[in-house]
Amino acid sequence: MANIDNQKNIYLFTHGRMDLQEKAENALIxxxxxxxxxxxxxxxxxxxxxxYMAMLWMPPTPDHIKIQLITKVEEVKAEGVIGLWKxxxxxxxxxxxxx
Length: 99
Fold this sequence. Notes:
Elements: E1 10-13, H1 21-30, E2 38-40, E3 52-57, E4 64-73, E5 88-97
């Protein structure tokens, strides 16, 4: 993994594809993240600067996981399914196959 600190939390976004959660977690574990650091993303709690986001991509039929570094967290009013993540800025840093 290119410059990824696998001691940080990684927030997993399944985009409603809970059937792929275990597969996604296994892919992240194979990249060095521990199961304890993989957090299911929630619209009402965001990560911190330096944490990571893992998104199943591209919905609705994802074939890879996009890993992003959280670079900025701004306070915003929660909106829809995105919730507080609306105020999070991030940079794409890696992509890994889903299966």
